[in-house]
Amino acid sequence: MSKTVNIDWNNLGFSYIKTDLRYVSRWKDGQWDEGKLVEDNKLSISEASTALHYGQQCFEGLKAYRTKQGKIQLFRPDRNAKRLNDSCKRILMPEIPEEKFIDACIQVVKANEHYVPPYGTGATLYLRPFVIGVGDNVGVKPASEYIFCIFCLPVGPYFKGGMTPVNFIVSEYDRAAPYGTGAAKVGGNYAGSLYPHELAAEKGFADCIYLDPMTHTKIEEVGAANFFGITKDNQFITPKSPSILPSITKYSLLHIAKEYLKIEVAERDVHINNLDEFKEAGACGTAAVITPIGGIQYKGDLHVFHSETEVGPFTKKLYDTLYGIQFGDVEAPEGWIVEVK
Ligand SMILES: *Cc1c(COP(=O)(O)O)cnc(C)c1O
Questions:
Q1: What is the set of active-site residues?
Q2: Which of 34, 101, 254, 329 matches a 20 to 30 Å C-alpha distance to 217?
Q3: Residue from 82, 286, 318, 322 to probe ligand 1 pocket by mutation (most atoms less than 8 Å from CB)
């Protein structure tokens, strides 16, 4: 199968491209069907679907990477399977067996193999799994039927021409409630973040920083990414809170900082009034890998970390190691890489 596609790999952004096939599986009467690959990128669902009215839906995001040898690999898809199921449990949707999830990811990548960007472009194939409640319902209760889908599209590297720090502003809004759904990757969390994001963008910031919803004194998230900082005595610190979305990139960086960079790591409170403890800071997630944080605007003051224009040495090392593991150039910890064959 050596089909070629007409794509300018070096100028991909993050916008929808319809690829050849997507995976669809349906749940009815207590079980998932086998699932299949389909050409149609439209879903036909009941007007009374809970996903449309009550936000009964969740999603995931992961990437397939082309290695120097031309192989294709997934990065920790078992973690996405687990997190999808944690999200499903929180909003009473049926879970998806891990093997079914990983097998579906592999099917989608193989079926769209010619869309996996070449090694060296920094571009990847982004996979978007999601689960939605469908069927004829009207009351506020779990749906009678569900659809699990995965589609994919090639996406460019987040930073073209090298990593550059960006500034963020602390939002007065919350993305999650103290005992709400912040830790679940459910759509409702993102609808509520659109307006605060727009306010931040209007003021010239890349995105906003959300503080803990209970006290508004501690950093929780950086837009739709997790926060980390490097303290002046070289510790990798990331916030701990039940309303943070547990980023797989963040947990990977915790491991990399400890085992590859050999520095101390901790998950603990990060006070917005004590940013001076950090010499570097960054945001992390699948899309950007790492976004270096130049400065954080809070109550009228911009706190600059390492620099507004240059990436700090620890941030760079973390990025290079993780990126190297994802593209197969750095040896991965056991179980992190799943080859698509
Ligand atoms: C998806 C997401 C992240 C990043 O998670 P990764 O698993 O690293 O991609 C962080 N914060 C929010 C709010 C997210 O939705």
A1: 185
A2: 254
A3: 286
- In this structure, what are the phi and psi dihedrals at residue 141, rounded to the nearest 5 degrees? -155, 165
CA–CA distance, 144 with 142 (Å, rounded to integer)? 7
**Domain definitions of the chain by residue range:** 9-155, 166-326
CATH superfamily placement of domain 166-326: D-amino Acid Aminotransferase, subunit A, domain 2 (3.20.10.10)
Q: 9-155 in CATH: which number?
A: 3.30.470.10
pLDDT value, residue 157: 83
Helix (H, G, I), strand (E, B), or coil: what is residue 42? coil
Predicted TM-score (pTM) of the model is 0.97
* 323: pLDDT strictly greater than 90: yes
Question: Is residue 254 exposed (0-12), middle (13-18) or buried (19+ Cβ within 10 Å)?
Answer: middle
193 pocket-lining for ligand 1 (C-beta < 6 Å): no
The H or E element that residue 108 is part of is: helix 98-111
